[in-house]
Design a protein that fits this description.
The chain is built from 3 helices and 8 strands, in the order βββαβαββαββ. Strand 7 and strand 8 form a beta hairpin. The strands form 2 sheets. The chain has a 6-stranded antiparallel beta sheet. The protein has a two-stranded antiparallel ribbon with strand order 7-8. It has a single domain, classed as Beta-Lactamase, CATH 3.30.450. With 155 residues, the chain is of the alpha+beta class.
Length: 155
C-alpha cells in the first residue's frame, strides 16, 4: 500500500498521529474515510472509491492523494469508544482484501490502542506523582485491585 495512517477523529477533523506516504497532518472529517469507519463495526474496505457512491466525488479521491483503495480498522478504547483508525490506502483499486488481511489490520489496530492507553496511563501517573510531591497532605493512590501504587512522604 502506498499510504498507512493512524488517525484520531473528532467532531470536525481527522488528525494523522502517525503517517507513511502522506505529508498532510489532518483533513476535514466530512472528507475522511475514517469518519465512516468509526461509525461502523469492524474493518471497512472500499475496493474502488471512484466507484463507491459515498466517495466518488470526495476531494481525496478526485485530487491528491487520489484514494482508490481504502481499508481501515477502528481504534476501540477499553471503554468501547471508537476514536480513530489504523488504515491503509492506495491510489489503485484493489479487489480481494482477505479475511486474514482484515484480521491482521484489526490486530495492529489493537496494538495501537494498547500503546495509546499505555501512554495515557503513564501521563496520569506522572501527574499523580507531581501532586504527591508538592502537597503537604497525605496522599495515597491505589490501583483497581486496591493495591497501593503511590504515596507521598506525609502518608
Amino acid at each position: 500500500m502506498r499510504l498507512a495512517l493512524v488517525s484520531l477523529v473528532d467532531e470536525d477533523r481527522q488528525w494523522f498521529k502517525a503517517r507513511h506516504g502522506l505529508e498532510a497532518t489532518e483533513t476535514c472529517r466530512a472528507d475522511s474515510f475514517c469518519g465512516h469507519t468509526i461509525c461502523g463495526q469492524g474493518v471497512m474496505v472500499v475496493p474502488d472509491a471512484a466507484a463507491d457512491p459515498r466517495f466518488a466525488r470526495n476531494p481525496l479521491v478526485t485530487g491528491e492523494p487520489h484514494i482508490r483503495f481504502y481499508a481501515g480498522a477502528p481504534l476501540v478504547l477499553a471503554d468501547r469508544h471508537q476514536v480513530g483508525t489504523l488504515c491503509v490506502i492506495d491510489s489503485s483499486p484493489r479487489e480481494g482484501f482477505s479475511q486474514r488481511e482484515a484480521e491482521a489490520l484489526q490486530l495492529m489496530a489493537r496494538q495501537v490502542v494498547t500503546l495509546l492507553e499505555g501512554r495515557a496511563a503513564r501521563q496520569q501517573q506522572r501527574i499523580a506523582q507531581l501532586i504527591a510531591q508538592t502537597t503537604t497532605d497525605a496522599f495515597v493512590c491505589a490501583d483497581a485491585h486496591s493495591r497501593i501504587i503511590l504515596w507521598n512522604r506525609a502518608a
